[in-house]
Fold each of these.
Amino acid sequence: MRTRLVLLAVLLVLISLGPAYSACRELDVARGFIQPAHAAAADAVVEFFGHNFFQITTAKGTKIITDPIAPGMYPTPDISPHAITVGREHPNHNYVEIAKGNPIVLRGLGNYGAEWNKISTTVRDVLIYTVPVYQQQFGNALKGAAFVFDLGTLCIAHLGDLAHKLTAEQIKAFGKVDIAMIPIGGSFTMPPDTAREVLQQLKPKVAIPMHYRESTMLLDMFVKGFPNRYLPNHRHAFSKEALPSPTQIMVFTPWGMRGYR
């Protein structure tokens, strides 16, 4: 009896450390043992503030922002996140001063952007980890960082300024992606045709284009042939069981701006 009580106590401690099931990884790297039933209620709310700048809010209220952009290009939101991820050391991606409070800042690159900074950490109910990628600048390959957010139910990947097709190792590192924020702009990232190939590699349920400066031409090239939906606003709630199949492209309207259609 005493042994059983000890084992039960250990199990409860493991469960309390974070989500009991990994939405992104296989069982050998999952953080627990119990897979929860998926509720009809929203597992996450995603908000788009322009360029690569998003906010993810979990069902438990955890708020994470990605690649915050400096004021000037888009309206500046009033945000108080628990964590900030930075995939590129540039004011269009690393303006962490925009956030109120005292959030945790997770930088995917070190040494002023010259080296990859491996991250695998839990912020409240979210496991956050990086996948090393390459971005580009004036034709030169630079190190970059993509971030994965494991919510226990949903697996969300922010591909940063990815500029190339993925290797088999990178695909495995991302895991089973449900929602992918994917750059399509070319120049500093991959163009729409390469982004379409990456969608075929990752096979997310939802793809959200970013880093295209509201170019309808780039959007048209990216969505062609895929089920697609243009949202009239910047915010959408997602639940695991309501995700589309096959991949649907969802075009968000940046906060404070008018829709495309």
Note: The chain has one domain: 2-251.
Amino acid sequence: MRHNWLMLAASLALAGAVPATLDAACCYFSAKNADILQPAQKAFITWDPEKKLESFTVQPKFEGNAQDFGMVIPTPSRPTLHEMPRDFFKHLAVFSIMKKREFPHSNLLPVRRLRNLGAFAKGRGGAREESEKLSEQFRKPAVVVLEAGVVGSLDYKIIAADRADDLFQWLKDNKYSYSGDEATLNHYVQKKWLFTVMKIDTMQMKKNKDGSFAGEVTPTRFQFSSDKLVYPLKITQISVKDKTEALFYVQAPYKVDLPGEMSYKYTWLPMLQAASGCTPGGLPGRGGDWLKVIGGDIPGILQRGQALGFNFQPGQRPLPNKQGHTPTTMEWARRFTAADIKVLQGQAPYSERVPNVDEGFTQADMKDAQRSAAIIKVIHARLAKARQERPFGYLVREAPPEDVKNLRHLAGHLIEGKFITKFRKIFARDEMNDDLLMVAAREGQNEDFSEYEEILPTSPP
């Protein structure tokens, strides 16, 4: 299964290319005589509402026989471009691995092992993927190149256009074989957005035995001014056959959600409710406090979710309703702390460690009856001490040591005090008719402050 690395761009295969397949890279366009679809995408977005400053990071992964590839990224204002760590999204995934509760147990006691009451099912996330022609105008195109440069291994141009047909012609004149429609370009032209065009030289990538190329380019961050936290969703519609799965990491002063029917509250609230009676020590991450604050609103929210056909089932991924719309799901959410910075810098452990109550003893020691009795007494004392110190278990997660070490590449990009919200949405094609507005997570006047970094009994796999 192929995995896309982002959205927001409209990728292009350059003129003269043979049919190719691009794997990721935002809402890309089809190469000439080829069908290119976008089954999935990922985005890291940072938002500063006071400065009206937004940024998003994109990393295309592609394969094919074209000599060059390209992409077009629309933004509300002129962006500045910055090179990001090559495995940026891998580092984000490792940092946001869900924790699970574990309890110490002995392999040496001559009794049945203690049941791990706090170990719940593991949760993993994966990742998945208008045509109206304007009449031609026989006049000189009026497209202005505002800036040209290089970021990482990518040549780019930032351009402005007053008319969609001018932009369409400019792409053609500059050897971009754009198979999309002018109507989608016009959507952004009318909003006076700018376009960043990037060319990718595949000669810098791995060449396969069949002569095709495959690889990923260095991820690039686009930073720009914006009145609202908006994500260019509509341009993705061109490269989507019926649906696309998007995974968002959003860093902002507050927890972020999608508005209206796209909100994750239709799965988040019933998941918290269902877990509230079977979680040792109560709901983690102040989930129980959040339910109390909005208690009077919960029945209406659940009724609305049922009316939409969003029927929550504990421990299961949500299914689409009759209209083919799938509810958004919360994946991970937490305010970034000074302690997290130490984890990135390798100054604090990535995971808690469950005490080894058998430490210092072996199976051979247990064969001696007199020595065995003393060992059993010690192990029971260690177990009692662990239960007293951590009655609800130890929060653990696992990742290869090298991946944990490489979390240092996130330093400076994740900001102390900011809330990082990770959520997933499968967009049906008819849900992509406009760009995506992101809002503060709240119910009425009550801001959603609940965090989610620990697997619950009701968490989906």
Note: Confidence is low (pLDDT under 50) at residues 1-39, 112-138.
Amino acid sequence: MIKARWVERVLQPRFELGTSKGPINARTVWYLIAWHEHEPLVRGIGEAALFPGHSKEFPADVRLKLTQLCERTDDWAQRTVGDLVDVPSVRFAVEQCLRDLEAGGTKTLFPSDFTLGRMGIPINGLVWMGDKATMKQRIREQIDGGCTTVKMKIGAIGIDDELALLRAVREEYGADDITLRVDANGAFSAQEAPAVLERLAALQVHSIEQPVAPGLYEVMAEICATTPLPIALDEDLIGLNTLEAKVDLLDHVRPQHIVIKPSLVGGWNATHAWIRLAEERGIGWWITSALESSIGLNAIAQFTATLNVTTAQGLGTGSVYTNNIPSPLVAGHGFLRYRPEGEWDLSSLA
């Protein structure tokens, strides 16, 4: 018989994480921990990491579902295709927890050349919002650190200043040397977006994530049809938990790319569904973290490594916390790597 409990933790960023939706100064996540009654020292762990302001679920939903799961452990698999579909972060936690338990609590969820330390996953360097001088310094740090794809958050300090930062990169590096992505998190209105896109295209920006707020499907469809640079849907994927809803979005909006956050769309199976639908329609995709701790990031990274990706993924967020769980994951020189000689320190979850 499986026994289970859950733990809530607050993660502390090393610096204020600026977004167009406001700064992030703390991050709450939940861990689902399970073990077999006859083998209590072997424990599977999964992380539920909803994202306030983006997720359609709430902390109260997570706590309720985790409590129910711990009270009854014999129906978890059925619930992942039942009531947990609408609580995607918990659904993903269950997927992780069960797979880790099957793996003997080793955190080796998808054995591959990645987990053997033989290959890395290409990742973008992420530039959080701040004042102009700080953002300029962060861009330089990412490029000097070996990142050839840099993603910058925009929509908070003023588009003129943000474009000036991107222009400075382009004056030094061509598009063949440094790929520039931007993430607006829905910062622009339908009226503002076309002019912003034209100015970004002039700087050979690779793509913009979510230029207008999620849910504006007619607006986004028109933007995607006329845009001078590729559009990547991000927040618009969240909350579309049925196959029919996914198909409707992609067929109606026809984006050039989609950005998939497993914690927010419902885990590995849901991510596979989005990838299949995108590829059938010639839509590009990449996978990103949602500021999980090492537990969730490891689950996403090991899964991503099985997909043979060649473009930069958004998985370089593990170092943003002062109190993250020590793990074998290491980001640097434009890659996320897994050091099999490294160790997990799970003492904080004891």
Note: The chain is about 35% helix and 20% strand.
Amino acid sequence: MELQYLGTAAAEGWPALFCDCRICRHARETGGKELRTRTQSLVDGKILIDFPPDTYAHALGYSLQLGKIKHLLVTHSHMDHFFPVELIHRHEHFGHHAEGMLHVYGNEAVEEAFYGAVLIDRFRVHPLDEAVKFVRLKPFGDFMADGYHIIPVPADHDKREQCFIYIIEKDGKCILYGHDTGMALSREAWDCIFSHKYGLVSLDATMGKKQTDGYHMGLPDGIAFVKLLEAQGCLQEDTVKVINHFSHNGEMTHQQLEEFAETHGMKAAFDGMKVAF
């Protein structure tokens, strides 16, 4: 399997849109891996995870033909993870030769945002019935998509909606995609996570070396999360461990994140990074 990180930033981007803090100044001056778009990933070129405002830029930057994608997993309804108005462009009037149906999977809040965007008056002449289909998910309601076994696991994030992290399996290989979440997962969520063995674990690192009471994780949380997985026998000798979803409020440059990750046997994601396992 292969996971490509198309974007690796938190909601405000990096450098943040209106910010002139030390980290954002450094990013603008340095460029390269210090520049981050909002978080989005792609599994094997087939399963898209999240749909931020930067999706169009990702398609351009990585020569993606998104009209071939048939499955979109959405973690939650926050704008940096789901910007549904762009989905209207999969209608044949805009997206010529898009292949088959795009299935959009998410919670009730994602569903409300989806229909609120694509059913506005000016789009009624371009109905998406033959192009995009929404599928509402339930916690632990596993399903198959193009040969992938996918499990939505309740996250520790926004209490106003049922946010998800995802377990994605195919041909004996397994990904734990853990964004956005804190550590205060339910017992049922931990049990589900502990019931798998992973080739790749991708964990939230929004807070940098800081920690907060849920919602997101910092680097100390990521270390603790990995130790829990190790104690439960969920990791293999060659499991790839990645930290991702970074904010300038974490007050660490990419170089500092890379150094920290290397010290702890991890990788620090950057925009465009591919991990095969």
Note: The chain has a mean pLDDT of 96.
